[in-house]
Amino acid sequence: MNTIQTQDSLTGRERENLLRKLKQAQHDFGYVSKDMMTETAQSLGLSIGEVYGITTFYSFLSVRPLGKFVIRICKSIPCYMQNAEMIIACVADEIGIKPGETTGDGKFSFELTNCIGACDIAPAMLINHQVYGQLTPGKIAEILRGCE
Ligand code: FES
């Protein structure tokens, strides 16, 4: 009989403990540093690869310091069909960086993400924990001006 094996070698409990520690680090420091990943791996008896894999899988965790305002634009199909590409280009123009970058002054980080659960108001984005939808270039400019 064949068995299906997943690449995920962590048990439910290990994953739960790991996510708790990573979320705490993200909350306390704004990202999960290499040292924090090493320390977490040692304390939970996991490999660095397992910790790194989980850290980079979740979009709410970051392995680099992020800006004061983290802009996450949804790139999933429903938002794509509602001109998310235009919104991405508009944000890039407004703040002068591309997805995956942080402005030199540390004010904005710009990320693309999968569905944020706001498909009914596509195209949508998050700035930190606030959801914005039915985005247009005019709305983008107004929202970004409000980021102080
Ligand atoms: S597809 Fe964009 S919020 Fe769901």
Give a short summary of the structure:
The chain has 6 helices and 5 strands.
Structural account:
- This protein is an alpha+beta fold and 148 residues long.
- It has two domains: 46 residues; 77 residues, Glutaredoxin (3-Layer(aba) Sandwich).
- It contains six helices and five strands; from the N terminus they run αααβααββββα.
- β2 and β3 form a beta hairpin.
- α5 runs parallel beside α6.
- The longest helix has 18 residues.
- The N and C termini lie far apart (60 Å).
- Bound molecules: FE2/S2 (inorganic) cluster.
- FE2/S2 (inorganic) cluster (FES) binds next to α4.
CATH superfamily membership of the largest domain: Glutaredoxin
Number of helices: 6
What order do the helices and strands follow? HHHEHHEEEEH
Shape: elongated
Q: What is the spatial order of strands in the main beta sheet?
A: 2-3-1-4-5
Keywords:
5 strands; binds FE2/S2 (inorganic) cluster; alpha+beta; Glutaredoxin; single chain; five-stranded mixed beta sheet; 148 residues
SSE order and pairing:
Blueprint: H1 12-29, H2 34-44, H3 48-57, E1 69-74, H4 77-81, H5 84-95, E2 101-102, E3 108-113, E4 125-127, E5 130-132, H6 137-145
